[in-house]
Amino acid sequence: MSTALKEQETVTQMRKPDVEFTGGAGDLLGTQIIAYLITICTFGICFPWALCMMEKWKVDHTIIDGKRLEFKGSALGLFGNWIKWWVFSALTLGIYSFWVIPALNKWKAENTFIVR
After folding, report:
1. Are 39 and 50 in contact (CB under 8 A)?
2. What would the pLDDT profile of 57-84 be if each residue is shown by its tens digit?
3. In what order do the strands lie in the sheet with 19-21?
4. Nearest to 46 by CA among 35, 59, 31, 60
5. H or E element: which one contains 21?
6. Are 8 and 37 in contact (CB under 8 A)?
7. Contacts of 111 (CB under 8 A, 6+ apart)
8. Residue extents of the structural domains in the chain
9. What is the DSSP secondary-structure string of 31-57?
10. Any residues with CB less than 8 A from the CB of 51 and at least 6 apart, and which?
């Protein structure tokens, strides 16, 4: 079987899932204001809490193939990593910060679940 035919078969087996987003602007604005105030009032110390609020809003309003997603990450679960990432970034003069975004995205993915 030719390579082009194999690739075509692979593409035809894939399908786009039915994705729906149910969040609204008012809900988002309220969540963003609270997250912003938490971050400003604590001089950034509680940023992990604000980040979890925003991620929870986004994930909890997403439905894939009729199944709702749920974010179960907590600020306490992120806080230890957040401190570690800041220390390593400071010690390496910012070089470690290139590893922070992938690590943060991995943490978000590990804390996102499909509700059955």
Report:
1. yes
2. 999 999 999 999 999 999 999 999 999 9
3. 19-21, 62-64, 67-71, 112-114
4. 35
5. strand 19-21
6. no
7. 71, 72, 73, 77
8. 19-114
9. HHHHHHHHHHHTTTTTHHHHHHHHHHH
10. 35, 75, 78
Q: Give the Cα separation of 46 and 30 in Å (integer).
A: 17
Compute the mean pLDDT over every residue in the chain, rounded to the nearest whole number: 92
Angstrom distance (rounded) from CA 19 to CA 39: 31
Contact 76, 68 (CB under 8 A): no
For 95, other C-beta atoms within 10 Å of its C-beta total 10
Alpha helices in the chain (DSSP H): 3-13, 25-41, 47-60, 75-91, 97-110
Instruction: Indicate the pTM of the whole model.
Output: 0.81
Position 87, amino acid: V
